[in-house]
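Researcher: Re-running this chain for the archive, since the previous output was lost when a drive failed. Same request as before.
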Amino acid sequence: MVGFGVWTITTGWWGDFSDEDGARLLRKAYDLGVTLFDTADTYGNGRGEALLPLALKDVREKVVYATKFGYNFYDHGEKRDGQKEIPQDFSPDFVRYACEQSLKRLQTDYIDLYQIHNARLEQVRAEELFGVLEDLKAEGKIRHFGIALGPAIGWHAEGVAAIRERGVPSIQIIYNLLEQYPGNVFAQVARDEDKTGFLVRVPHSSGMLEGKYTEDTVFGPKDHRRHRPRSWLINGLKKIETLKFLTKGGKRTLGQAAIQWILADPTMISTLPNIYDEEQLLEFAAASDTPELTDPELRQVDELRNKNFGVEEPPMTFKGIELDSPEAQEILAGAES
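Model: Regenerated structure tokens:
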């Protein structure tokens, strides 16, 4: 199932959208069969939530609202440029306050999935935090709760602990063909525990797997990808060349193949591609209707990943340890938890 990540039309990182344009794109998504809409209270100081009823209030019972909490933008403003953090607050009083404000902006009596936004290990293990979430669930204000992990703000140990210690039903992660760590570790732990599924954002590796970049691609001054080193672009282009077999015969686009690769894993509940125009929406919403990846295709992807898609790069490390080393594999398997 393909969902819609509302951050693309409310944060300004992918262009500026009026409320009317944003609501129109959301409604178009629903008309195409998209029923999961993921946002956060901090997106646009609440705008990410307020846009949903503009587009979907009349079909509220037919859609799933997923939102997040934890950043106190009420007192400190919103996050800027996707980099600088504002203070978080996970106290029971603030969580209750944040939930009530989200319910008002969403113009609904309940939130389908309420997610801890960029949780640290401290929050994963906070009994009073999960206690207030259980209370909100018992009161009918939320139906389910989960965790959204950040790329650097709470990630590896947090994900393993959330699965093994909390058994949360939903964890939101970054995971894609080109960036499989640590999502592949989480997926294996989830299969072992048989408790948790994943919402996958950035399934196209910040646009690389959409297949539209060239060596001459230039990102706009407000685009978060502008801050990436040029090697990310050049090496990424080399990697996607090796994946052309997934689009052979025109049966699916590279962007659709990237989504189908994620959905081939039964632990993946849904994927949230970055959608910021109607052309992308039409392509990604149709991904589930394209042929599923075959076992030989999946094996070929695994073989390519094991060779880093034929591209020589400095080894990725975690806490100074190369990820491919036995020591790292022991850590990633959950020894820290």
